[in-house]
Write a structure and sequence with these properties.
The structure holds two protein chains of two kinds. By secondary structure, chain A is α+β, with helices and mostly antiparallel strands. Chain A contains eight helices and 22 strands. In chain A, the strands form six sheets. Chain A has a five-stranded antiparallel β-sheet. In chain A, β16 (256-274) and β17 form a beta hairpin. By secondary structure, chain B is an all-beta fold. In chain B, a hairpin with a 3-residue loop joins β1 and β2 (14-18). Classes of the chains: A alpha+beta, B mainly beta.
């Protein structure tokens, strides 16, 4: 049935004496007929291939039969009817080819999990490994690329690479920085002045003990060892030296503050992303504000769950104005406390804060809060031993 | 070249005749087909020729009987 539709067929009405004879003539001429129906003793209807109808008409004329082609069906008939709309058909074919091409290539690379490595570094490594935007999916060996990526990015402990439609998703887990990985000979020196609370030297000769006071830069563990067998030799000193030391943090909040506030006015403009090219769907630069926030929102086109390299990007510009704000003393103090809390958690992290003293100073310009802390943390810092 | 007919029946609904030499009579209740040496008559109701090529015919309908003459 499908082949009949593809080749096309015509419904014919045959009239004449002994129509069976004409059917035999057609079969002798290698013309297949089907759905033969006898309307009367002298009239048959049947179907014949669309491109064979002229041969049948010629045969009918030759043998004195009446043959009318009543209706034609199938793809050739459709194409013939729509021949003046060839642009539509060509467009449909081009669309199908484009969809096929778009689905068979990688058009975007999504990277996640990187903190110390930049996207650009990973993209370069991927490019060296053979994966770039525009690569054919069939030519990619994901296992190979994963291995090459791990070799090219030594700080990465795990790489996951998956293809999702035309998008390559790269998830990486970076190796945690560990002192034990260092291989060069080094000493451990003090990063702060302090009192030693605990010494955990895993490699090297310890130079301090619990209770000692140390100055910044003082040797805590030596990377030069003496062996009765080997003599002097160098090693990478490693370990933790916990010491209590004091530290000062300061937060300042002015009474007069300048800040930017959104007015509520906004303007949206769109641009079409085709592969890596952008086509502006607005005239000129669009509406611009003197001060604004610019938010990009990209929506990619997906076909049957596959992402295509075509999408619409919405750029929203929110107008902002500069405003002045005068804080009261208590407001400024609250803000300063909040700022100092943030600075504390950022600076001290896992360190143990043993004691904390705050002092507030109010000037005519603003409020200072100074925090004096006694903190116990690892103060050991590596110092490379230079050798000839 | 087939010198004798090859006939297959699919229940009483369809009959395939290979090695036929032409259609002799075509009616709703009787179809006569010329074979190499004989004539095959298919009788039944609602008979119609589903397909016909140079040497084969497929007849569908409710077939009551086939007679070689």
């Amino acid at each position: 049935m499908l082949f009949r539709y593809i080749y096309g067929y015509s419904l014919c009405r045959l009239t004449g004496d002994l129509p069976e004879k004409f059917i035999n003539i057609l079969s002798k001429k290698h013309l297949s007929v089907w759905d033969l129906t006898a309307s009367s003793d002298t009239e048959f209807t049947f179907c014949i291939r669309y491109f064979e109808r002229k041969k049948a008409l010629n045969a009918a004329m030759e043998y004195g039969y009446g043959l009318n082609v009543e209706k034609s069906f199938g793809l050739p008939v459709f194409l013939l009817k729509n021949r003046l709309r060839c642009g539509l058909i060509i467009g449909a074919v081009i669309f199908a080819v484009l969809i096929f091409l778009m689905k068979s290539c990688v058009w975007s690379i999504e990277i996640e999990g990187n903190h110390s490595l930049s996207d650009e570094q990973i993209l370069n490594a991927l490019s060296d490994a053979g994966l770039t935007e525009g690569s054919f999916k069939s030519s990619l060996n994901l296992r190979n690329i994963r291995q090459k990526l791990r070799l090219k990015l030594p700080g990465v402990s795990y790489v996951e690479l998956n293809l999702d439609g035309s998008k390559a998703k790269v998830s990486i887990i970076e190796a945690k920085e560990s002192k034990t990985e260092e291989k060069y000979p080094c000493n451990l020196i003090a990063g702060y002045d302090g009192v030693i609370r605990r010494v955990e030297i895993t490699c090297g000769e310890g130079a301090v003990k619990v209770g000692d006071m140390v100055k910044k830069g003082q040797l805590l563990a030596s990377g030069i060892a003496d062996s009765p067998v080997k003599g002097f030799f160098l090693l990478p000193a490693n370990g933790r030296v916990l010491a209590a030391h004091t530290e000062k943090l300061e937060a300042f909040i002015p009474f007069e503050e300048e800040y930017f506030k959104r007015t509520g006015e906004f303007y949206e403009k769109y641009r079409l992303k085709l592969f890596n090219f952008y086509i502006k769907l607005y005239i000129g630069t669009g509406k611009e504000y003197p001060i604004y926030d610019k938010i990009y929102n990209y929506k990619e086109l997906t076909v049957f769950g596959d992402t295509l390299p075509i999408g619409l990007e919405k750029i929203t510009l929110y107008e902002k104005v500069k405003e002045h704000k005068t804080l009261s003393e208590s407001e400024a103090l609250n803000a300063a406390h909040l700022l100092l809390d943030g600075m504390e958690s950022e600076r001290f992290g896992d360190a143990v804060v043993e004691s904390k003293r705050l002092s507030e100073t109010v000037t005519d310009k603003g409020v200072y809060i100074r925090g004096y802390y006694t903190v116990t943390e690892d103060i050991a810092v590596r110092q490379k031993i230079e050798t000839d | 070249m087939i010198y004798d007919a090859h006939i297959e029946m699919f229940g009483s609904r369809q009959i395939l005749i290979e090695g036929c030499r032409g259609l002799l009579e075509y009616r709703e209740n009787i179809i006569r087909v010329a074979l190499y040496k004989k004539t095959l008559t298919v009788t039944g109701t609602n008979l119609h020729l589903e397909n016909m090529t140079e040497d084969s015919i497929t007849v569908c309908g409710t077939i009551d009987g086939t007679i070689f003459e």
